[in-house]
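This part of the workshop introduces the protein records we will be handling. To make this concrete, we reproduce a full record directly below.
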Amino acid sequence: MAAVSVVTLSKYVSRLVALVQGTLPVDYLDDRAEFSSQGIFTNARQMLEQFNASISVSLYVVVLLNAMLNNISLLNKSSQSYEA
């Protein structure tokens, strides 16, 4: 059986734990500036799309609530006109 150093075994176990936890050690990643800038740009675009989606949902809710409140006020006005 080949002798395995404690340092090598420790590195292997720490990488395995990191992968199980869903994180990658830095030495697995490509650290070139081009790769990093592409990653930053992609993350920024994704954040912008998430923001746009949340704004769209918010605007939809505001329009829906506005329509509901207008219908309620119209119903109140029409019920008052029948009573008079």
